[in-house]
Specification:
Blueprint lengths: L30 H12 L3 H16 L6 H9 L3 H5 L15 H23 L13 H12 L4 H14 L8 H17 L5 H16 L4 H4 L16 H14 L12 H14 L3 E9 L6 E8 L6 E6 L2 E6 L17 E5 L5 E6 L1 H10 L15 E7 L7 E9 L3 E12 L7 E12 L6 E19 L3 E16 L9 E16 L4 E17 L4 E22 L6 E15 L2 E12 L2 E12 L12 E10 L2 E10 L4 E11 L1
Parallel strand pairs: 7-21
Antiparallel strand pairs: 1-2, 1-5, 2-3, 3-4, 5-6, 7-8, 8-9, 9-10, 10-11, 11-12, 12-13, 13-14, 14-15, 15-16, 16-17, 17-18, 18-19, 19-20, 20-21
């Protein structure tokens, strides 16, 4: 019989790092070690044998000087050898026999463990160094100190990684590898072997693994333009196979030399997240400041708290809590998106959510961002001054300042409204602006343009008091960066809408009713990974308004005024369900006061959808020509959030 050590592949190894051209001349075990080994074998402590070999022999022969803390730490990690070695066979004498190949592999596996532990879990790239560096040996020794500080939680993640990644050893095809991989992930989730934070760390580990095999050839144009390349998607099984074969053989044996760009990796991480029990898992595409290219990341709702979302960009994790609306999808200083696309992993786009940056620019040019999203909260504290010539109030210049908690904005806009009472009313405008992120130096100057065209076709009229209309229209908005690295690239947003409108007047026009229902369509994707284009049915919007004018006499001046009571309902139905806002109030003289309630009515929504949580609010507006000042306050019991927004507007 012989004592034999098998081998499986570990993650992200640098195979030559701890390998020697020849096995060492010194024996692997001294007399005392053989005695202790024999004792452990006779008493059945196979795990202790494995720990002895891995912690003491491999590290010792690799040039490490183990501290007592490190030895104790590794020895206490029961079952560590199961991660790296298939089996152990013992001789009758209790000796240990390794040939040259087995010895080299054993050392490589330990380097794999150290590299994975340090670079992924501790963020210290100790192995990216020149072997001829005179300080190299001292740096290698320092790894043991880092290793001894790894928590039990980190080690659980490492073990889960090996259990899932090593499925490639028995898989014959890419599809079989993917199936075995997902079966193991499902078993880990159903067995409650990892906490939520440990699952997130495991997803990040795979994000780093896939990033290390990023498909530069598929991105073709430049590093920042992989979104322009349309082609077949790269499956999870393909990416796993490429990574596994590169670790085992140094090269890949399948048709992919590398696998996956951002959208493939985001989809793969989305599938992994779903198997680990996360909900509301989507691939988010958005525009970056790098030549206004598109990028994709993964977003998911926390397992334990529906008010927490996690965004994973390869191996980088961002989390937010109790942040309602699309602002929660902000991707950091590189984000300059007008909207965020939400797609199922390896699937179609289900929604596009307007960013607060987009809403600010619509407010700067068009004055009313409710056409973009009537349920979006007034999160912007803003100030605007509008200048219009007396001869034509449809032409105006406007200066607008605002902030949303992430960035500050300033824009100067020129706009033109035309044919407001005709069958083809519209509006066009352009804004020159600056965005200053509050916690970074990623300031950017930009040019924003806006075109909104409608067509109103009368259908039926009853005694001039009831009128039915067919209303259609389209909106095109675009933005180009004025920073040097963006060139003349443009990101654009397109919305096409069509529907019915009904207007009615009673009591001589004092009571007015208006109802409008429209379907909105936008460009989307049938498959986020392969970029197959599609037309996205974004939502159906239903809006109704009622106003009633009542005469009122001032006690002081004894002149007739009027109070206007009003109510408004906004409902949005999309694939996930129905959300709505109901508000009512009154306007008298220089004051306007309203209150509202909003929230989901049918279905459940991730927190980054506006009106995804029940919220109560009020708005006070004071109007003293030419100034208008408003104050908004709202409270959401679901997320225990109280927010206040204010703004000033003026017309001259």
């Amino acid at each position: 019989m012989c004592f034999k050590i098998g081998w499986i592949v570990g993650p992200l190894s640098f195979l030559s790092l701890f390998c020697f051209a020849n096995p060492p001349e010194e024996p692997l075990l001294d007399k005392d070690e053989k005695t202790q080994l024999t004792f452990w074998l006779r008493t059945g402590h196979r795990e202790a044998v494995g720990n002895l070999f891995e912690s003491h022999i491999s590290l010792k022969e690799s040039g490490f000087e183990l501290t007592d803390v490190a030895v104790q730490f590794i020895s206490n990690y029961i079952g560590l050898q199961k991660i790296f070695f298939k089996d152990i066979f013992l001789t009758q004498q209790g000796g240990l026999i390794l040939n040259e190949l087995e010895y080299r592999r054993a050392l490589s596996e330990m380097s794999t463990y150290l590299d994975h532990s340090v670079t992924l879990l501790k963020g210290d790239p100790l192995f990216y160094m020149d072997l001829s560096d005179p300080n190299y040996r001292d740096r290698r020794r320092s790894v043991v100190g880092v290793l001894s500080q790894l928590s039990e939680s980190n080690l659980k993640v490492i073990q889960a990684f090996h259990q899932t990644f090593s499925q490639g050893e028995q898989a014959k095809t890419e599809g079989a590898y993917e199936n075995l991989f997902f079966e193991k992930l499902t078993a880990i989730n159903q067995g409650h072997l990892l906490s939520t934070s440990e699952k997130l760390l495991l997803i990040q580990v795979y994000g780093r693994l896939f990033l290390n095999n990023y498909d530069e050839k598929r991105s073709q144009d430049t590093t920042y333009k992989p979104w322009r390349v349309v082609g077949e998607d790269v499956s999870v099984g393909q990416m796993l196979t490429v990574a596994y074969q590169k670790q085992k053989f140094g090269v890949t044996q399948n048709r992919h030399e590398a696998a996956g760009v951002c959208r493939d990796i985001a989809s793969a991480l989305g599938k992994i997240s779903q198997k680990l029990g996360f909900s509301d898992v989507y691939v988010v595409d958005y525009t970056t400041i790098y030549e206004l290219s598109r990028h994709a990341t993964t977003v998911m709702t926390d397992i334990d708290n529906a008010n927490v979302i996690h965004k994973i960009n390869y191996d980088v994790l961002q989390s937010s809590k109790n942040l309602e609306g699309a602002l929660a999808l902000d991707q950091g200083e590189e984000d300059i998106a007008l909207s965020y696309g939400l797609s199922k992993p390896y699937g179609r786009t289900i929604a596009r959510l307007a960013s607060s940056f987009y809403l600010f620019n619509i407010e700067a040019v068009a004055g009313d961002p409710s056409e973009i999203d009537p349920l979006a909260d007034p999160i912007l504290n803003s100030m605007g001054v509008r200048l219009s010539p007396e001869a034509n109030e449809d032409v105006h210049l406007q200066l607008t300042l605002g902030q949303d908690g992430i960035a500050q904005y300033a824009a100067v806009a020129a706009a033109l409204s035309y044919a407001p009472s005709d069958y083809f009313p519209g509006q066009t405008g352009i804004a020159l602006g600056i965005r200053d992120r509050l916690e970074s130096d990623a300031d950017i100057g930009y040019l924003f343009f806006h075109i909104d065209q409608q067509a109103i076709v009368p259908l039926y009229q009853i005694k001039k008091a009831h009128e039915f209309q067919w209303i259609s229209g389209f909106r095109v908005d675009g933005l180009t960066s004025l920073n040097g690295d963006a060139g003349i690239n443009i990101q654009s947003e397109i919305d096409v809408r069509s529907g019915l409108a009904y207007e009615a007047q009673y009591l001589g026009g004092d009571l007015r009713l208006e109802h409008r229902a429209q379907a909105h369509f936008k460009p989307g994707l049938e498959n986020i990974a392969s970029l197959e284009p599609a037309i996205l049915w974004d939502s159906v919007m239903y809006q109704s308004e009622m106003s009633y004018r009542v005469p009122w006499f001032s006690d002081f001046e004894k002149k007739e005024e009027e109070i206007v009571f009003f109510s408004k309902s906004d409902l949005i139905q999309n694939e996930l369900g129905l959300r709505g806002r109901f508000q009512s109030g009154f306007e008298i003289d220089h004051f306007r006061l309203s209150s509202y309630i909003q929230g989901p009515m049918i279905g459940e929504f991730p927190i980054y959808f506006p009106a995804s949580r029940k919220r109560f609010g009020s708005r006070l507006m004071v109007m003293v020509d030419p100034w208008r000042w408003y104050l908004d306050g709202s409270y959401s019991p679901k997320i225990d959030d109280f927010s206040v927004a204010s703004g000033v507007e003026a017309d001259f």
